[in-house]
């Protein structure tokens, strides 16, 4: 079989040489380049259509997310005012449960990476890392943190971020967390706070625990018995989770819209660039063919 291949290649060699003599090699690279540019332009135009579509969808979801965020802030404001008047202080030391609030969705810039960076910054001290367990909402940050702290993942929640979070969803998540959080002295949540349509801020917030509520110096003014400490803590915790999820979702939609807008602009710039190159190459090819025709006509004439 090998010998047959060699014989065929030797037999074809004069044909290839004769074709090259006729100028085939001069035109083949140019035609191939034009074909490659056509394929690349088509691919970039398809990408531009996708990014523009995602941007439009993200803009629509952002409007809904902002309304949901304002509703969640009302719950959080009432809760904060109550505990501020009661003089409640969230614990700042002890065995810690750190909740990282993200989602399962990508294509939104560095919004998930900012969460994992702040978590890693908090756990850079080995003593803190040893004394901290992680609860992660969303697959994106979970996969990032698992590379660094596989033994610290305590709870994870998937299917987060498909739609604007509801209070029922926050209640379900908070109930699952509190069922497994009795051993912790301190609970912290890390999330992206919505600043504007073009920016967000990654923050860390200490949450109230049952013990901190029981030790509130001004709680007696409400004539509250010890039986209400646990419901108060659950109420405050659910409100905090709901507000964090709502702000994180709003920040994600804003970041995704901005990322897709930038991607669409970049795609447009690339289309203009390659269109110019394509037109230049095509014009050069046509010019060379005209020169060949004129030269041949002069030779015959």
Automatic annotation (TrEMBL):
Entries under PROSITE patterns matching the protein? ATPASE_GAMMA
- Cross-referenced Pfam families: ATP-synt
Q: Which UniProt keywords apply?
A: ATP synthesis, CF(1), Hydrogen ion transport, Ion transport, Membrane, Mitochondrion, Mitochondrion inner membrane, Transport
Give the UniProt subcellular location, in the record's own words. Answer: Mitochondrion inner membrane
What InterPro entries does the record tag this protein with? ATP_synth_F1_ATPase_gsu (IPR035968), ATP_synth_F1_gsu (IPR000131), ATP_synth_F1_gsu_CS (IPR023632)
Q: Note the CDD domains from the entry.
A: F1-ATPase_gamma (cd12151)
The record's principal subcellular location, in a coarse class, is mitochondrion
Q: What is this protein called?
A: ATP synthase subunit gamma
Is the keyword Transport assigned to this protein?
yes
Q: Oligomeric state and partners?
A: F-type ATPases have 2 components, CF(1) - the catalytic core - and CF(0) - the membrane proton channel. CF(1) and CF(0) have multiple subunits.
The family assignment reads:
Belongs to the ATPase gamma chain family.
Q: How does it sit in the membrane?
A: Peripheral membrane protein
| Statement: the UniProt record of this protein carries the keyword Mitochondrion | yes
GO CC terms for this protein? mitochondrial inner membrane; proton-transporting ATP synthase complex
